[in-house]
Amino acid sequence: MIKDSDILSLAKDSLLTQAKALNKIAGQLGDEFQRAVELVLNTSGRTVVCGMGKSGLVGQKIAATFASTGTPSFFMHPAEAFHGDLGMLTQDDLLILISYSGETEEVIKLLPSLKHFGNSIIALVGDNNSTLARHADIVLNIAVEREVCPNNLAPTTSTLTTMAMGDALAVALITARDFQASDFARYHPGGSLGKKLLLKVKDVMHQENLPVVEPDKNLKDSILVMTEGRLGLVVVIEQDKVLGIFTDGDLRRALVNKVDMETAAIVDVMTTNPRLIEPECMFVEAEEFMIENKIKALLVVDNDKKLTGIIEIFDR
């Protein structure tokens, strides 16, 4: 029976071997990769990914990543394509064909039809002298020295390099298209991620019973308003416009300095020039800003600097 220590050793060796394979692939990238990215960018049709077996499973992931990041794409099963699904294609579509050997029968059988249709082909292969490589417009080499499978049979390291190459293409395309988080949200409306990316500050800000005081309010009464507001702050306003903010941190400093709460006006101890944000800003931007500046809340104001709400870092 294999020892626990041997299991861990095998796992670590597997990960390190695969990491080395990725480093090697990265070192080989050159003009062909640049041409592949430009070909996808300039394609007026869709980017169709096609592969058989494990390559097909990886191809489905690549197509899904492309589609969700601004590159219209779908996966086409090569065997089904040979029996009618080639009708999915238009002559403007670009094909990414995946075959580690470059000789996968179901993929190779599609080449005459694709050549007849006039589709451009990017090949992801492990053999630059293979049939697929010879008939492709662009070849991206995903070759590995061997699989981490002890028998050097099960696709393991090669599927990793294939997926990594697909991700590298996706990242380059995302950057080239200037694809932003707001764009990503449009394609991911479901689930917490989509909701978070689509939210605006106005959708989650506190709007009712805001803790506000006039500048001449004494500190003691202002603290009572802050306590009732349950936001850990009070906003100082004059004629509906924000003058400053008084937070839990300001209160601690006032106590250390032994400020007289009965006589001190809130305007004398407030923080001036508080951080403000507009209601139409994206929530993720507000959240990032609060995290980067280590602040708990932002005051939401309109174009006239009038207070319309308060947003906390944990609001979603």
Explain what this protein looks like in three dimensions:
The protein is of the alpha/beta class and 316 residues long. The protein folds into 2 domains: 4-179, Glucose-6-phosphate isomerase like protein, domain 1 (Rossmann fold); 201-312, Roll (CBS-domain). It is built from 15 helices and 12 strands. Helix 7 (131-135) links the parallel strand 4 (120-125) and strand 5. It is elongated and about 90 Å long.
If strands are numbered along the chain, what order do they take across the biggest sheet?
2-1-3-4-5
**What's the story with the biggest beta sheet?**
5 strands, parallel
Number of strands: 12
What oligomeric state best describes the polypeptide chains here? single chain
The low-pLDDT segments are none
Mean pLDDT rating: 91
